[in-house]
Amino acid sequence: MKDQTIEPRRGTRSAYVTQQVRDMITSGELEPGSRINERVLVERLNISRTPLREAFKILEGEGLITIRPNAGATVVVLSTEDVEASIEVLIGLESIAAERAARNATQAALDELADLHDRMVQAWSDGELMAYFHLNQTIHQKIVDAAQNPALSRVYASESARIRRFRFAGNRDPQRWARAVEEHARIVDTLRRREGPLLREMLRAHHLSGWDAARRALEVDQKAAAQGRK
Questions:
Q1: Using an 8 Å Cβ cutoff, are 130 and 171 in contact?
Q2: What is the per-residue pLDDT across 202-215, written as a single tens digit (0 to 9) for each?
Q3: Which residues contact 61 (CB under 8 A, 6 or more apart)?
Q4: Sign of the four-CA dihedral 149, 150, 156, 160
Q5: What is the fold, at CATH topology level, of the domain defined by 80-229?
Q6: Where in the chain is the domain with CATH 1.20.120.530?
Q7: C-alpha–C-alpha distance, residues 187 and 151, integer Å
Q8: Which of 166, 189, 216, 227 has its CA 20 to 30 A from that of 135?
């Protein structure tokens, strides 16, 4: 069955394909280390190979896949240590951004964050994990953007993209997912009140809690995969 969740429009086909494949990697449907079968995706998404290969170039730039001559595209494998190092970087970047965001955020930016949060809560209420995740990631990026430091925003976006799958995994635990929603409500409210130091500590605790849940989920996946290979 072809995936019809997003209808591609003329001029946006590559973006559509990129998002679809990115979500497959994020959800684990395309597993780390697996070779991506172009023919299967072409048939599933009802596209030609051209937008798929354009998508591959974008995803390679994001660090999600590798492309080798005569071997095609393969989903990147990151170790737990790789991801933990990236989480430390993201915590550091958000720590830098927090007080600046509290000081520099425009009212328009605060209103946009409030709207994104409301939509994210609705996605959680509806049980739409991928929709929730997209909004969640946008909120984190918008908080960093509110610091009004383009270099900080650029580095954060790049590092965040590499470990999307691992951040997604943390919310597969329903209890953690519910806590994350509550934490986000407090984070957005703290930014609205422009309490920079508190915002910094809340973001740090939020990341660490999310990574702890993600690590447990991934350890379960790794054990299951190892048993399947026996």
A1: no
A2: 999 999 998 888 88
A3: none
A4: positive
A5: Four Helix Bundle (Hemerythrin (Met), subunit A) (1.20.120)
A6: 80-229
A7: 23
A8: 216
CA gap 140, 138 in Å, rounded? 5
Q: What is the pTM of this model?
A: 0.86
b/e per residue 65-101 (b: at least 16 CB within 10 A): beeeeeeebbbbebeeeebeebbeebbebbebbbbbb
Report pLDDT digits (tens) over 106-138: 999 999 999 999 999 999 999 999 999 999 999
- d(CA 94, CA 91) in angstroms, rounded, equals 5
The four Cα atoms 107, 112, 118, 120 give a dihedral, to 10 degrees, of -140
User: Cα separation of 35 and 136, whole Å?
Assistant: 29
Phi, psi of 74 (to 5 degrees): -130, 140
Residue 67, SS3 per DSSP: strand
All residues at 6 or more sequence positions from 124 whose CB lies less than 8 Å from its CB, including other chains:
132, 177, 178, 181
* Angle of helix 129-145 versus helix 13-27 axis, rounded to 10: 110
